[in-house]
Amino acid sequence: MRVVIADDHSLFREGLRSLLEARGVEVVGEACTGSEAVDLAGREQPDMVLMDLAMPEMDGLAATRLISAGLPDVKVVILTASEDDADLFEAVKSGAQGYLLKSLSARELLDMLDGVERGEPGLTPSLARKLLSEFARPTAPRRDRGPEDLTEREQQVLELLVQGLTSNRELAERLVVSENTVKYHLHNILDKLHLRSRAQVVAYGLRHGMPGSADRP
Questions:
Q1: Predicted pLDDT at 109
Q2: If we measure between CA atoms, which residue out of 43, 51, 42 comes closest to residue 69?
Q3: Average of per-residue pLDDT values in the chain
Q4: Cα separation of 31 and 52, whole Å?
Q5: Are 192 and 150 in contact (CB under 8 A)?
Q6: Residue 194 pLDDT class (50, 70, 90 cuts)
Q7: Would you give the DSSP letter of residue 157?
Q8: Alpha carbon of 194 to those of 27, 62, 149, 186: distances in Å?
Q9: Chain-centroid distance, C-alpha 61
Q10: Is the C-alpha dihedral spanning 97, 153, 85, 80 positive or negative?
Q11: Which structural domains are found in the chain, ordered by start?
Q12: Which of these, 52, 140, 156, 167, has the minimum number of CB atoms within 10 Å of its CB?
């Protein structure tokens, strides 16, 4: 099994690497930010990414969404100290195949990772029960969302798309951010507005009165 470790604590990464390598797992890279994790996953194509939640630049949930969307064969397992139910639910919605706590013993962790490699969900029984309970609840009717539901930066991305800047590179240059950050904002826009493509995003913006490229002087 080939693994990328993503955690902003170097001491934890070193300890986890030693544990995995002693079990015969090949650690092909380490990342200390979510952006680095996305880049490493794309470059190394590992079998699995062990992802912390709280990291600088881009958090683990955002990185998980990008990896799950762009690299469906790469399994993402959240490895965190957070026992917050909301983090668990959001991680699964983001595409994570597992949610493991750092309080697990070495043996429990390795057994769980072996299970994920075989296609099993990486969840302890207690977390699995929480997850089943949450998703068994009836959902409220979904309301239509407007541009006001987006963050200020997401609204800027939406406006630029409507104006004709459709490539990640162009958007990144205009906003002075990385292309990974642009992908993150685009994913959030699609998710919040319940849309499936950039073309739908542009059409949505035009319907809501945003000036398009043909309207610019």
A1: 94
A2: 42
A3: 86
A4: 10
A5: yes
A6: confident
A7: H
A8: 37, 17, 12, 12
A9: 4
A10: positive
A11: 2-135 (3.40.50.2300), 147-215 (1.10.10.10)
A12: 140
**What is the band of 74 on the pLDDT scale with cuts at 50, 70, 90?**
very high
**Cβ(44)–Cβ(28) below 8 Å:** yes
Residue type, 136: A
pLDDT in tens, 16-58: 999 999 999 999 999 999 999 999 999 999 999 999 999 988 8
The residue type at 7: D
Which distant-in-sequence residues (6+ apart) come within 8 Å of 58 by Cβ? 33, 34, 35, 38, 180, 181, 184
CA dist., res. 77 & res. 48, Å (int): 7
**DSSP code per residue over 17-69:** HHHHHHTT-EEEEEESSHHHHHHHHHHH--SEEEE-S--SSS-HHHHHHHHHH
- Whether 137 has a pLDDT exceeding 70, the answer reads no
